[in-house]
Amino acid sequence: MRIVLVGPPGAGKGTQAAYLAKNLSIPHISTGDLFRANISQGTELGKQAKAYMDAGDLVPDEVTIGMAEDRLDQSDAAGGFLLDGFPRNVGQAQALDAYLAAHGIRLDGVLDLEVPEDEVVKRIAGRRVCRNDSAHVFHVEYNQPEAAGVCDVCGGELYQRPDDAEDKVRNRLDVYHRETEPIIDYYKQQGLVQTIPALGKVAEVTQRAMDALRREA
């Protein structure tokens, strides 16, 4: 299957993408992974992206699109893929459609993870990360440490990352509504969108998504 996963920050896209890709035996292709791979490998696109990022500028669509197309050209994506974080706007969605059409294929579905905005803010602003190891993540409500402010794993100090502050989260949501949310309407016009309520346990959300994909098949 060829799937695009959409949803606001804090909707659980990364988590769901990993589970869905495993269940469907297709590669999970995230924008973050594309950037990290191209930069670490020193590709021409990676060098271009790094130059923009080092200057504090947004990476242009054509660079991101180029990375995505190169990744989709790899053999493991021939039988299907799950895109997470790409396309990020209508221009990128149109470029993806053009790429797929040129290869005689099309998307099978677009999964829209739906989470109330207040819940998104609560999820992200409540995160606390260990200063010693950022892989140790807790939450003031959903995953509390045994001792307030102390990492259960290594005893390091837990803190709120600057980007997780409520005002920054709401700004990220504004950007999502302005730039990314329009692709949902774009794909609805193609009859591809399945809206997935993303509240509840991870396994429950995954099952809803799998059920939606079976209906599409």
From TrEMBL:
Keywords for the protein's UniProt record, in alphabetical order: ATP-binding, Cytoplasm, Kinase, Nucleotide biosynthesis, Nucleotide-binding, Transferase
Record EC number: 2.7.4.3
Domain Adenylate kinase active site lid: 127-163
Keyword S-adenosyl-L-methionine assigned: no
GO molecular function: AMP kinase activity; ATP binding
Keyword Transport: no
Subcellular localization, as worded in the UniProt entry: Cytoplasm
GO cellular component: cytoplasm
Superkingdom of source: Bacteria
Pathway: Purine metabolism; AMP biosynthesis via salvage pathway; AMP from ADP: step 1/1
Leading EC class: transferase
Pfam families named among the record's database cross-references: ADK, ADK_lid
InterPro entries associated with the record: Adenyl_kin_sub (IPR006259), Adenylat/UMP-CMP_kin (IPR000850), Adenylat_kinase_CS (IPR033690), Adenylate_kinase_lid-dom (IPR007862), P-loop_NTPase (IPR027417)
Residues reported to bind AMP: 31, 36, 57-59, 85-88, 92, 161, 172
Reactions catalysed, as given in the entry: AMP + ATP = 2 ADP
Region (NMP): 30-59
CDD domains, per database record: ADK (cd01428)
GO biological process terms held by the UniProt record: AMP salvage
Residues noted as binding ATP in the record, renumbered to the chain: 10-15, 127, 137-138, 200
Family according to the record: Belongs to the adenylate kinase family.
Subunit structure: Monomer.
Primary role: Catalyzes the reversible transfer of the terminal phosphate group between ATP and AMP. Plays an important role in cellular energy homeostasis and in adenine nucleotide metabolism.
Notes on the domains: Consists of three domains, a large central CORE domain and two small peripheral domains, NMPbind and LID, which undergo movements during catalysis. The LID domain closes over the site of phosphoryl transfer upon ATP binding. Assembling and dissambling the active center during each catalytic cycle provides an effective means to prevent ATP hydrolysis.
PANTHER family: NUCLEOTIDE KINASE
Name recorded for this polypeptide: Adenylate kinase
Organism: Actinacidiphila bryophytorum
Gene coding for it: adk
